[in-house]
Design brief:
alpha/beta; Alpha-Beta Plaits; 2 domains; 46% helix
């Protein structure tokens, strides 16, 4: 069983979209999405520097656009499940057919703007905590007033909170753990994002929603969600609630995952899978050069649409 996954904020790097725009029809698709959301995705994906694409309002739609573009380049795919990390859940929702691509881009544009506005209220951020006993790490974060905003598995927990709280963490690390500050512009998936939830609740009422066409694994609790309205409700609340990617990987394991492909800009989730899901074949879509290997993996696992249809 193959799962198709989409990365979250922080996966973007300057110029990462450039080679994808050389694919047939890709530039036109990006231009149409750019017009639909009022953001020049081609510019930010090819010419903008690291600081420009660190902006939450830019990074989030850029990541969803890249994920959808790279997934489309694979051709028709029939994965055993889809999932996304943080903003990648919107990519996954589109891949599952819950939203069409343009609706997904409009929704994520609203999400990015609302979260950027919420992040501007107080100076906040996130830091990765690598290693240590997970229960002890969470307890240590709570003692410092921080939130375990991403529980990623494979020995990685991401702490979120104010700049002062994160500075305290850097000075007072959990036992046997390393702390690395992340290049994100806010304490995402915490109470600091509550104002963004209200904005997304309003945006959600305008969406045309379908039930997932393939199993959709929610990063709220690792559960498979079969109702499209429930998927959207979870996407709305997700911005102020922790990401439980560890539970998503547990679900993959329970369903017998044998392979995992991460859409562009892939690397983060395949790295976690290599440590948490030994024996599972992984492939990250970084450039179009990875497409042939990905198509081979799809065919070998029966996840190409032709194979699924018995062709």
């Amino acid at each position: 069983m193959l799962v198709l996954v989409a990365p979250g904020q922080g996966a973007q790097t300057p110029g990462f979209l450039t080679p994808w725009l050389d694919l047939p029809g890709a530039a036109d698709r990006i231009a149409a999405w750019s017009d639909a959301i009022g953001l020049d995705l081609a510019h930010y994906g090819t010419k903008a520097d690291a600081d420009e694409i660190r902006d939450t309002a830019v990074a989030q739609p850029l990541l969803v656009a890249a994920g959808l573009l790279s997934a489309a380049a694979l051709g028709e795919v029939a994965p055993g499940a889809v999932a996304g990390h943080s903003v990648g859940e919107i990519t996954a929702a589109a891949l599952a057919g819950v939203l069409d691509d343009t609706a997904a881009l409009r929704f994520v544009r609203t999400r990015g703007l609302a979260m950027a506005e919420a992040a501007a209220v107080t100076e906040t951020g996130m830091s990765a905590v690598l290693g240590g006993d997970p229960d002890q790490v969470v307890a240590h974060l709570e003692k410092l007033g921080l939130t375990a905003a991403n529980v990623n598995g494979a020995g990685q927990i991401v702490a979120a909170g104010t700049a002062e709280q994160l500075a305290a963490l850097a000075d007072d690390k959990p036992e046997k753990a390393r702390v690395i500050a992340l290049k994100v512009a806010g304490a995402f998936h915490t109470h600091h994002m509550a104002p963004a939830v209200a904005t997304l609740e309003g945006a959600a009422t305008t969406l045309t929603v379908s039930d997932p066409a393939v199993p959709y694994v929610s990063n709220r609790d690792g559960q498979i969600v079969a109702d499209g309205a429930d998927v959207i409700s979870r996407l709305v609340g997700q911005v102020a609630n922790p990401v439980r990617w560890d539970l998503c990987m547990e679900t993959f394991k329970e369903r017998g995952v044998t392979a995992l492909i991460e859409v562009c800009p892939g690397a983060t989730l395949t790295g976690l899978a290599k440590r948490a899901l030994p024996g599972v074949r992984t492939l990250a879509l970084k450039t179009p050069d990875d497409l042939d290997a990905a198509r081979t993996l799809l065919a070998e696992t029966g996840a190409s649409a032709a194979d699924a249809a018995g062709a």
